[in-house]
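Subject: mismatched residue count in predicted assembly?

I count 473 residues in my input, but I want to confirm that the predicted structure covers every chain. Input:
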Amino acid sequence: MVEITDIFEIKDFSIYYGDFMAVKNITLNIEANKITAIIGPSGCGKSTLLRSLNRMNDLILSSRVEGQVLFQGVDIYHKDTDVIELRRRVGMVFQKPNPFPSSVYENVAYGPKIRGVKRRSQLDEVVENALVRADLWEEVKDKLNESGLSLSGGQMQRLCIARSLAQQPEVLLFDEPTSALDPISTANIENLLQELQKTITIVIVTHNMQQAARISNYTVFMYLGELIEFGDTDTIFVNPQNKLTEEYITGRFG
Amino acid sequence: MAIFDEELKALREKVLKLGYMVEDAIRDSVKSLVERDSALAREVIKGDHLINALEVKIDEECIRLIALRQPVARDLRFITTTMKITTDLERMGDLAENICERALELNEKPQLKPFVNIPRMAEITQSMVRDALDAFVTGCSQLPYEVIKRDDEVDDLTVRNFEELLPLMIQDSKIIPLALKRTYVAKYLERIADHATNIAEMVIYMCKGKLIRHMEISE
Ligand SMILES: Nc1ncnc2c1ncn2[C@@H]1O[C@H](COP(=O)(O)OP(=O)(O)O)[C@@H](O)[C@H]1O
Ligand SMILES: [Mg+2]
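Triage response: the counts match. Full output below for your records.
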């Protein structure tokens, strides 16, 4: 028997902004080394749920949670959680590429430096490694000292992925990572995610349903803060079990 | 109605039209044999290219919709079902044409014995085609399951048809070529019923999202 390991176990989990309940009592397991896509109409709580997985939502003062999120069996909302370490292990890449206004090299070396990697040779190795994994090395190896902001949109997004990878995360969270990119850059990122999935777990919010269909193993459909359907991506796109899911993915919503 | 919904509706109507054409071809092919109407047989043969042309048109439309609309879920199942159904319908048209070819040959010679099994088979197969397509347009019901059950009846009649001809062939070997041609006609009808069964199975797939081909029907 193949052992299925759930890296996240989300249990009866709700997220509030003040009195507003943005995520309603969700129970969901995220399997390790798979791509899980979260889809649903704007405002249904996808980003809110995603951000809760590495406690990015802590940065929003009005937000609070109920229920549990276990990361490798440990409750990440426990008071003893080292949030900095959690965010290293569970990285996040946003919709708009947001490199630091510094060199390509410094962008990637930033995290490792903070973690105390000081030897130049060791930093070089970490940076090269991360850029190779982000499929960017060949394009930037001769301009490591140029500004990260001088790259193309698709390259900047891969630079942000490299920056996250340099932290050696176990999970990467992506919030609509290709919605600002052209089709070729999008295809590059999609290929990259499928490559990365071999070694890390990926959770991606996307409003591009074909993207979810192309790259994910599991799909979560949310509506008005609720989880409506969760299943194999094959099942969701060929034979969804819930009427609402079917209406949404066939474009007949509302 | 959204454009895509209208396109799907138009597609459904084309499949129905193809179905009517095939039903007519089956009925006329058997009529040309039973009533020894060779002119009718030639007409059916001449009309087969219209069935082929509509099949191609429907397939092209399906391919276009897949490329442009990127259908998923029930839309995807509807379109893939349509593509398979039209292949079955087109094959039925070919088989009706084959029946007409045998009718032309048989009509040249005196009739061996009155037709009993073949008209009955034609009736059942036509009803199978009609009901399979009804199920396709009206959606999920018991109808496709009933179509699949009727296939057994056609199989039985195929066997009976042969068993009734066999003693005649043993008695008089000169009639063997004619008797064999009548056996072929029964075999063609049996194959038509098999195609109708395929359609019913695809309709069940379309409704349930589960392929039931090569499985025992329990419902
Ligand atoms: N910082 C915030 N403060 C208050 N409400 C918010 C905040 N962020 C999101 N919301 C609300 O929570 C709901 C879910 O938002 P979000 O998670 O961004 O949805 P999605 O990513 O699915 O578009 C929306 O109604 C949104 O208006
Ligand atoms: Mg969002």
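The CA atoms of residues 98 and 215 of chain A lie 23 Å apart. Marking this ticket as 'not a bug'.
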